[in-house]
Give the backbone structure.
Amino acid sequence: MSLIYKQESYKIIGKCFDAHNNLGAGFLEIVYKDALEYEFKKSNIPFEREKEYTVNYDGIILPHKFYADFVIFDKIILEIKAVSEIHPKFIAQAINYLKVSE
């Protein structure tokens, strides 16, 4: 598999493992988000948490927005899931986030 932002992705994945190794399994997503925010700050990794995006539909902005869990290095969206397996709907969700965020 080829990564677009290889160096940045490895840093992010490393912080995800740090958070998971420290907390273990079983917490709600919000706890992992808090831990990752701490890890990113500690490592001086630039990020925005809960970044708001609007959805343009047929030339209008829809009233409901979506919020990316993290946007890191101003170009990578990180969606946090506290689940035991990746469901296809999570992949569809991430692809839609990428479309909306361009």
About this structure: The chain has three helices and five strands.
